[in-house]
Structure formats: structure tokens, C-alpha cells
């Protein structure tokens, strides 16, 4: 049974790092555009706030979470943007306080959850460690959007190992999300961590292989960069196709990011 404590701790650190980026922004800076169409920095933090609340309900109030699922099914094309729009209309200090309170409550709930418990989600049910990993992935990805809007670079950390792992494990889900049959054979994935270590997944003798920087794989799996701009290498046709459709998040495939310089 996986101990969720390390990833919950890393989720807290990831959130605090993003918090430090936005805590001193002026009201005008909160309205800066990010790479996500129509989303400002306020929308990015509002989305994290909304999703943390959904996760907290999933962990503590299954009936309440079911109500959120019904809302999502009633407006599948709008509910994410609607939630971000609503939160982004708050004054920045109120939005920041709400985000802080919600993520702290979620962290406590995950730490207090019963060993082996599984919680409902928009995809398959998740254990505490998986829920924390999903929240870390989103916090990191939306934090990149905030950093892009501010023109700053966030150095990659060892926390990427959680995102890389969920991206690898989501291989079959990514195929299903695109209406494709997942490959029957396992893949070998070898990723170079920010500190130089090698993170490996799958059998060493697998014919289908993906290699490259862990950062690049995480950017691909969260659709924060186009494959053409990343140093990822695929060996085998199935591995090559996977890199075109990889996603580590629940829900339908996103549009992704265009290659750098597209349309120029």
C-alpha cells in the first residue's frame, strides 16, 4: 500500500512555490493573459481553487461530489471555464485566501484518510496518493502558465517524478480518450531527472521505448509544450503514436500548444 505522505508533502511545496509567485502581484498583474485562451493569472488560480474544492468534496463528502459531477455532465463544454470565470471575478486577496484555505483543508483530509480508501473522481476512483499526485500535476502545469505570463522561469525539481509516473501510467487512458485501442505490450520509458538520475518504467527489453528529459515528458503529458519542441525520442510505431496523444489528466483530450513559432 502506497504511503501518500511524500506526495502530499510535495504537493504542499509545489503550491507554496506558486503562491510565492502570485502573493505580491498587483491587481493589474492578476489580469495578465496566460497561454490558456481567455485565461488570466486570476483564472489559473481560480481553477486550482475550484479543483481543490472538488477534490476535498471527493475525499470528505461523496454525495456533494456527485452533485459536481452532475453539473459537469450538464455542461461538459463550459463547466471548467465557468468555474474559473466565477473565481477570477473575486478580488485577488480574497481569491488568494480562498485558495490557501482550500488547499490546506485538502492536504489535511488526505493525510487523515483511511489507509486503502479510494475516492470518486471525474475519471477512475483514486487513492489518497493518486489524488495528491493529480493535484500536484495540475498545480505544476497551471503554475507554468502563471510563470509564462510573468516572464519568469521555474526551475524543474524532483517533484516531477510524481507527474512523470502518472503520465506513464495514463498511457492506456490517453489511447482510450482518443478512441484508440491501447497497445497490448508494455513500453520502456527512461527519463533523465532534473538532478541527473534516470527514472525508468517498464521492462528493459521492451521493443517500444521512450527516452528523454523528465521535464520534457511532463510538459508533453500536461500539454504545456508541443512534441516538436521537446527532446523526446520514440523507438517503435506504438511509442511514436503515444507521444502524439499523451495526456496525464482526466477528461477529453485538449487542444495542446502549437509548436514554437507556429503562424509567424
From TrEMBL:
Domain tRNA wybutosine-synthesis: 183-230
Pfam families hit by this protein: MDMPI_N, Wyosine_form
Domain Mycothiol-dependent maleylpyruvate isomerase metal-binding per the UniProt entry, residue ranges: 11-147
GO molecular function: metal ion binding
Full protein name: Mycothiol-dependent maleylpyruvate isomerase metal-binding domain-containing protein
Organism of provenance: Streptomyces ambofaciens (strain ATCC 23877 / 3486 / DSM 40053 / JCM 4204 / NBRC 12836 / NRRL B-2516)
Taxonomic lineage of the native organism: Bacteria, Bacillati, Actinomycetota, Actinomycetes, Kitasatosporales
Amino acid at each position: 500500500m502506497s504511503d501518500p505522505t511524500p506526495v502530499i508533502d510535495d504537493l504542499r511545496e509545489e503550491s507554496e512555490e506558486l503562491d510565492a509567485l502570485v502573493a505580491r502581484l498587483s491587481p493589474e498583474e492578476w489580469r495578465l493573459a496566460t497561454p490558456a485562451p481567455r485565461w488570466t493569472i486570476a483564472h489559473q488560480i481560480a481553477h486550482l481553487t475550484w479543483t481543490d474544492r472538488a477534490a476535498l468534496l471527493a475525499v470528505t463528502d461523496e454525495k456533494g461530489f456527485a452533485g459536481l459531477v452532475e453539473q459537469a455532465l450538464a455542461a461538459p463544454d463550459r463547466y471548467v471555464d465557468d468555474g474559473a470565470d466565477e473565481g477570477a471575478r473575486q478580488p485577488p486577496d480574497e481569491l488568494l485566501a480562498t485558495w490557501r484555505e482550500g488547499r490546506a483543508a485538502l492536504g489535511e483530509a488526505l493525510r487523515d484518510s483511511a489507509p486503502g480508501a479510494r475516492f470518486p473522481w471525474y475519471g477512475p476512483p483514486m487513492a489518497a496518493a493518486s489524488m495528491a499526485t493529480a493535484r500536484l500535476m495540475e498545480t505544476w502545469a497551471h503554475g507554468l502558465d502563471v510563470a509564462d505570463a510573468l516572464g519568469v522561469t521555474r526551475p524543474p525539481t524532483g517533484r516531477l517524478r510524481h507527474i512523470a509516473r502518472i503520465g506513464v501510467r495514463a498511457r492506456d487512458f490517453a489511447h482510450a480518450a482518443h478512441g484508440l485501442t491501447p497497445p497490448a505490450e508494455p513500453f520502456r520509458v527512461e527519463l533523465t531527472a532534473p538532478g541527473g538520475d534516470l527514472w525508468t518504467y517498464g521492462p528493459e527489453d521492451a521493443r517500444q521505448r521512450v527516452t528523454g528529459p523528465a521535464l520534457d515528458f511532463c510538459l508533453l503529458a500536461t500539454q504545456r509544450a508541443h512534441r516538436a519542441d521537446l527532446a523526446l525520442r520514440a523507438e517503435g510505431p506504438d511509442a511514436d503514436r503515444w507521444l502524439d496523444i499523451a495526456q496525464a489528466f482526466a477528461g477529453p483530450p485538449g487542444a495542446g500548444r502549437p509548436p514554437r513559432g507556429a503562424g509567424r
